[in-house]
Structures are given as structure tokens and as C-alpha cells.
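Working notes for the structural subgroup meeting. M.R. asked for a predicted model of this chain before we commit to crystallization trials. I am recording the input and output together here so anyone reviewing the notebook later can reproduce the run.

Input as submitted:
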Amino acid sequence: MTRTLHASPGLAEASAFAPPVITGTSAEQALDILFQALLDVARRHDPDLEAVLHGTADISRFSPEMLARALQVQGIWFHLISIAEQNAAMRRRRHVERTEGRAALSGSFAKVFAEARAKGIQPAQIQALLSDLRIRPTLTAHPTEGKRVTVLEKFRRIYLVLRELEMPRWTDRERNGLMNELRDQIELVWMTGELHLEKATVEREVAWGLHFFDETLFEMLPETMDTLEESLAEAYPGTSFKVPPFFQFGSWIGGDRDGNPYVTAAVTRQALHRNALASLNRYRDGVHELGRTLSLTERALPLPETFRQELDRQLAESGQARAIARRNPGEPYRQYLTCVLRKLDATIARNEGEHPSGPDYASADGLIEDLRTLERGLEDAKCGALGRDLVRPVRRMVEIFRFSTVRLDLRENTTRTTETLQALWRQRNGEGEPPALGSAAWRQWLDAELVRPRDPERSFESLPDAARETLATFALVAEMRECLDREAFGAFVLSMTRSVEDILGAYLLAKEAGVFLDAAGPEIRPEICPLAIVPLFETIDDLRAAPAIMRELLGVPVVRRSTRWQGGVQEVMIGYSDSNKDGGFVAANWELYKAQSKLTRLGQELGVGIAFFHGRGGSVSRGGVPTHRGIMAQPPGSIRGRFRTTEQGEVVSFKYANRGTAAYQMELLAASVFEHALAGDGERASVGHDDALEALAGASRAAYVRLLQTDGLVDYFQSASPLDEIALLNIGSRPARRFGARSLSDLRAIPWVFAWSQNRHVITGWYGVGSGLASFLEVRGRDGEATLKRLFQESRVFRLVLDEVEKTLMMVDLDIARAYAGLVPDADVRDRIFAMIEAEYALTREMVLRVSGGTELAERFPLFRDRLKGRLPTINQVGREQVELLARYRAETDEDRREAVKSALLLSINCIAVAFGSTG
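Returned structure, recorded in C-alpha cell form:
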């Protein structure tokens, strides 16, 4: 059933509490169920909000307190719509799999391998790719997630109950019970509230990240690996493949120091231990369940001699052989698992700071080998199915997550690392000032220090606090790799990399902190760095400089040795957010593409694999695009089975909050990487493509930069958006600016994008595109239009850019944007800047449709259009209310009234973010 939209008295547009159109009776029924449950809760707690839910209330007449409640219920409804959509998507995928087979399912392993087999790709090629495959989504705590963990848990339960309600087996009594539970969970969300009352701490962010592992990822990632093996068996029957743990998760939560003063070495240490305990406790649960299940007795099943010998060894090592045997007489597999469980308990105690009395596991390798021994023991006893079905999932979980859950990256910016290096120079050289950065003398000092033997007795106590803190963080790497897990750390990411010296400086800090290893003994001392040092190139100038920087870097002996030791691969991180903020959408995407192409060729020339770490955000403006299309639009040969990407804030919630969705997202990512790698050189640019994209990028960037350099833009942006008020949401521990300055250059990309989307300008996803296309046509005329249309059909990167621009233009509403502009006190600034935006929007809309051949924006994406159109009326109304709330909040002097307005204002920001599905 589809509810009709009712016009609200006195409003220009209807409320959008009626759900968006979703094809399929079950999806519509799910929305009806959720709507009715929310309506019941509203009637119970605030009957006045029933009119809001039905779209008959004029919320513009509400008091701030009543408006806050209305905004809260709107935000809850948007969340419930998202749950229904995720559920509907899962049902559609299951329907395709049931009726057409898994190979017909887009984004599946089965489809990729079936197509590979059809193309004649041999098993040896598949195995070679599997052996080199490395996929690592990396969770970040960037301030883009508004939901608290306790609210996430309740929405997770709503999803599960909704799924249960779809089952036909329930009696009316049981179904009523499930409906009551659904209402209870919605009521709990209502009474809990989503807004963070206090500023988020790093400790809470760590707990937020681990929530997704506890709820879905510990269980679903091993199942995803099983799905891959099943798909290989279907596509290549009779062939045995070795599948390593190629899919792992990284994290920046607790290790990202870049501009966050709250991430200290002590905080990072705590995060590492919490990450370790999360996985250890999960393994304990798994081993305990195995011990409960594997009750096989020697009377029924003769024990293989090799397993008996290993059991005897484990019992002797435990020091409790008699007690264990008495507890499980005649049950050798339970006795063995008791020994494993005792070692796990000792390992957990050690990580909690206690001193275990019995043996423990020095690393995950020991537990993995013990579980393999158990599998072999069952196989030798002709119970191999039990080993595969029961033991292997636990063993595979340990292989993937080890004793760290995630591979924690450290991140710092070059300003801080350089200050630490300068402090070291002063300590070693006494008086005077260090050589100027970029000078030959500075490079000579770095080179000399990198080859000088490290003094293990050297003290850093005399260094400034900030320098000691930076070195202490590096020292954690050496310590934790030894006592926690060799894979506890992923990499050290160096933000704001501008030169080879910046990267060599990070190597030197790692050396001084004791991270370096002796690769061939103390006599030769060819030291290597086991921690990958990953430069991050963010701005357009940095991306252009990257190939030359990396060519010089890979000629430095210690770097080449370290790269070989790390698998012959040098990782490079590229930033989608700051490049976009720097040069606009088209220029950023083209510069990212070019940098990857050049670095890939450089790696081939030097015999070093270059792997890319994609710093993407959730919104289109920060690189958030459909997974498969985004990967397939990467330059030919640039992935080759190695792919890292950031998963930020609300993206993590969307992808990994529910098990079915998490399994799909992980399979989609891995299958897409496979597909790109199997394509090899794949798409090759046709003659003229690169020149055309270069011209488009240059012209669009010029238009975008003109806007950024327009007098008064900073004042316009701050006044005509909730830029400063976003910080009041308390959705992240990190400040909005790196160094506290008040300029666009220092403003982080997240609040830059977040604020422009709230005020419906959304310039970060389209501004300059129209000027770029128009300039191209003006110069090249009729031939130019033919070139653009050919580019649209043949170039994946250009097609992706134009598609996402079209979708972003649908989010723009100039009438509402004009209302926000009315908050700018300077009429001249307001009129000049808004006129530029208005003109560029009209030009961009015209040019994009001209190239794509469409008549309406995003008509190629009907599901997207329906989803957005269903939300826009309410988003628009909330936006208008936000304009009024901003004006009142900024003008209010009475503290109590200001606080009431602030609550409604923050709920309006949250509501719009939830409705669009992204913030920054």
C-alpha cells in the first residue's frame, strides 16, 4: 500500500512522511509496518506529532521545543525508511539468486568467476591473483556519524524484527508479539535520542568501531571467504585453490593523530589492547562452543596417533593434565580444546595487564596452528566434515583478525613530524638552528642520520613535549609488534606530504624510536623499516608532484630494502576530499586518475608494485561513488589485486550494521577488485580522450577557483550555512580545523562538504562543471560536442563523473539556497556570490544534459530519483526551518531560549544528514 501525500496547511510543499516508492509488495508492506509502529509510539508519547507523520501539520508555527520533537520523529522515520530499503535490497538479491542463479547476481564472486571462465582465464591465473590479493577497507572516526552506539543497536534490532515479520510461519499471536517488540525498539530510540550530549572521546570512537565487528564482521567476513571458495568450485570444478586471508580490515580509530590532540601514545596503546581483546574474546567464545559441541569419545572414534601425540604435548604443557582428563574422561577433542581455551584465557589476562600463571599464545600464529591440528585430527579420524564445518570457521576468523581485530594505521601530518625532526637536530647539534627545509643541508642531515648506527641509550627526555609524544607513538610500533601481534599495525600515513624529505623524515623517526630491524645480522646491519611509511598526496599540486617524489624516494637504499621486505609493494595514499576542495569535482577526479596512471607506470619501470590507498568519504564530493563503478573506473593496471579504501562515519553504519548488507558489501568490494585485476590493462583511452579530459579539468578548475577566490566567500560560507554549528553535534573527537586557524585552506574537507550540503548549494559536487563543458564546446565547436558524447560513452572515468554530477544536481535547491544566503549580512557579498552560484548551476544543468542526451536530471537512475524525490519535500521543509533556527540561534541572548533553539537546530542538521544518507 502506498500512502498519499497530504498538503500541509500554509506550506508550499507537502511533507514527505509518505515513503518513497519501492518496487515490490514486501518492501511496501515493510514500510507500512514501520510507519504504523512509529505512529503508535507517537500517539502514546506526543499525539500532536501524529499530524506531522500524516503530513498535515504546519511545523513552521511550532515552538522550538515542539519543532525539536517534530524533527526528531522525522529523523527516526528517515532511518526506518533506510532499514526498509536495505531489507528490500536483500530480498531482491535473494530473489535473483533463487530464480536465476548466483552467477546472475551483479557484484557476486559467482558472476566474476563465471565470466572469467567464459573468457578462457585459467585456474593458474586465478591462483596467482589470489596469492597476491590484498583488500583492506579502513574504518575512520572522522566526524561524520551522528548515531550513538546504543541507538545503532536499537536500529539493528528493528532490522532483525522486520526480517522476522516477513516469515510466513508465525501465528497471529506470535506476529503480534513481534509487532510489540518492533514498537518497543522504536520507542526506545524515541526516548534515547540520537544527539551526543557530550563531545565524543577517542575511547568512545574505538567502542563505536568495534561494535560493527561484534555485531557482523567477525562472523560475516569468514562466511564471505567461504562464498568465494564455493564460487570458485562452481566455475572451476575439480580445481583446488588456496585462498589466503586476503580480506582484512584496517582502522584509523585511535591512531589518527593528524590534527587531533586527543590521540596520544597512551590512547593508541589503549586502543590496541581493546582491539586485541575484542578478537580474543570472540575466539574464546568460538573455542568454548567447539568444546561444547565436539563431544566425540574414544569408544566411538579411535584417536589418530598423530593427534594423540599433540594432545599429550598440550596436556603436559598445561601443567593440569590430570584435572583436564578427569573433567572430560574419554573425550580427547574436548581435552585438547580445554588446553586451547586455557591458553586463550592466559592471553586475555596478559592483555588486561595481569600475569597469567599458565602458558599463553605469543601470537595468533600459535592459535591458528592449534586449530589446524584439530582440523587434521578430525580429518584423520574420518570426520573431516566436522573440521570443515565447525573448526575451520573459527580458524579462518583468527587468520583474518589475528590478535588485533584491525590493522591500526598511525597518521600524522608533516608539520608535526618536521617539528620533531628539528627538535632532534637541536638535541644532537646543540646550538644554532636546523637547516632550512628543502635545502641541501637538510637532506644531507636526514641521509646521514638514516645510515648512522642508532644509539639505544639515547634519551628523549630533553625534547619538547610534542616531540616526545610523536616519538613515543613510533616506539609503540616496536613494542606492540613484539608483545601483541606482528600485524597489529597497518602503516604510518603521512598527511600533507610535499617532498621526499618529508617521507625520509618519517623513516628517521621510526628508526630513532627503535622500529627498524636488522635484516641480516649485526655485522652487515642493512636496516629495514617493517612499518610501511605511506605518503598521502591530497591537493592537486601534491598529486602532480607525486610521481617525481616517488621516483626519487624509491632510489633511497633504506626505502628499497624496506619495500622488498614488505612484499615488494610501496603503498601510496591519494586523497579525494582535499583534492576536490582544492580544485573542484572534475579536476580532482582527473588529477587522481592521472596520478595513479603515472605512478603505476613508474612502478612497472622500477620493478616495484605501487598499491593505492583511496582516501574516500561518504559523499560524492569526497569520493563516495558506487563501489563497482568506482573500482572499474580506476586506471588500467592500477589495482592488480591490491586495494585499500577508507570507510568513514555514516558509510560504516550503512554498509556494516546488518549482516546481510555487510556480507553483500564485502563480496561486492572483493569481486569488483577481482574483476578489475582480471581485466588486466582493460580499457585503453581512445585517441583524444586524455586531451579532452585535460582541457575540461583545466577549465572547470579555473571556474571553481574563481569562486573560492571571490572576495567575501569565507564570510558568505560561514553565514549562509551551519558551518560553525555543525561542531555542536559532538559527532567526532577531532576538531574541524587542523591548527585552529579561520581560513578555507585550513578547514577540513568534511565540514566543508557537510555545510554546503546542508544549505543545499552542494557546490562541492558540481561547481565548475558547466563552465568546463561550455568552454570546451566554445573552443572546439561541433567536433567538441561529438568528442564529449563519445567520451561519455567510452570513458569510464568521465561517465562516472558526469553521472555523479547529475545526481548531485538533484540535491540542489536554489530557492532554499537563496533562503540560506539571506543570512549573509553584507548584501553586496550575498548578491555577488549567490549570482555566481545560480548562473553556474543553470549552465551546468544545461551542459550535462546536453552531453548525456537526457531531458531530466538522473533519469538513467530511476531508483535514485524515486528514493530522493520521496525525501525531498521533508528535507526542503526542514531546510527552511533550519534557516529560521540559524537566525534565531545566532541572535538569541537569553541562555535558556538559546539552548531550546540549539536543540531544534542540531536535530535539523541531523535530520537532513540522515535523509541524504551522508554528511561530510
